[in-house]
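Two entries, shown back to back:
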Amino acid sequence: MNPVTPDEEMAAEVQNGNTQAAHVLMSRHRDGVYGMALRMLRNSEDAAEVTQEALVKALTKIDTYDTSRPFAPWLYRIARNLCVDRHRRRRPTSELNEEITAAPGVMEGGARFGQRADEVAHQNELNAALAVAMGTLGDKYREIIVLYHYDHLSYREIAERLDLPDGAVMNRLFRARRKLQVALLERGITP
């Protein structure tokens, strides 16, 4: 089995009972599913549990997967639904998860090489305000922000993952940004 075999072919192999293909396919997507779950749930333990649950569910439901369609959106839809279910079941928390508030490239303590202490403090304040503002968004708005701005997916990729028309993705992202802007303004942060 070639390591660059397309996901859809690998899934067909899994449907035929190939356990090696199952291992390769799930390994390819484990980190991506975890990252999405972490950004949606803002808790590393919950994200790890949902990732495991999503991968197991995908394997147990692999016979329902249509190999003529892209595999990743099917898998991510399973993970997304599990995240939404988990989020609904758990109580809201005021704890900020450092994994989502830390900016990329930031060293421990929030500093970047060559960055002044006042800049670090300001960036930490912005990150904390953004995390709180993201927490005020509904699931569908937080999710679209995460997929576009954190996962850097295109409108088309988001549409496939969420099973929405491209126009609905653009509309939802526009509304999500507006809501996020209002939430930040309420905290005294000008976006």
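entry 2 starts here
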Amino acid sequence: MQQGKQTKRLPGFYIALCCCVAVIGIAGFFAQNYNETSTVETSGAALATNEPYDIASIYTYEPSDDESASVSSSETIVIEEETEAPSEESAAAPDSSSGSDAQETAAEYTIDNPDLMSASAIIESAKADENAAPPVLSDPVPNMNVLYGFSGDTLMYNDALGDWRTHDGIDIEADLGSSVAAAAEGTVSEVTTGSRGGRVVIDHSGGLQTVYEQLTDVCVSEGDTVTQAEVIGMIAESVGESTRQAHLHYEVLKDGAAVDPLAY
């Protein structure tokens, strides 16, 4: 009878043991979950408040001696490579002598190309003309009897046209058909016919130009080089001017602006 009673009690003992094990497992699970939740909340709060968050406070990793030695050697290699980089850049820096070599090459190229030499000569000649002193102008016609003077910005009454206007040059008395000469050496830049008859413009050094109007039988062309006192045309009948008497309309321009011819 006693052995039978002990056999009936065994199932209750195992049931109680299983319950204890289950309680311990559940308690351990909730304890671990609570720790992880607290850690996440702590890091989230730090990020939300922009406070510095040290990951080492949660996960701490201590390398072994072999790993420390490996990391130290890799850092040494990186430092050595960084210190060597400037030397490579300095080696690739352009040599100051390359500029002179380029200039010599350009000079040799110009010598081997006659067209470039001609263009360079023209540019240098133009610069020299601009820097040269203005020439002394001679009288385009003899005797230089001025019939109508230079007005500049002042309005003058025009007898032939019956109005007030400026006069950019001077009208010089001359016999019909008499010759007109270049006032200085230069290059003919314009030959046209307008309201004042034949017109010739000559470019001189120092930024000067001379203009000759009321011409006929013009004997020069654009691009011609003329010498001082060289004949460029003849006096024509007066048209479109303040006087009906035969004359030469003569202008002088300095850097494109009309000036008093008598000042030159």
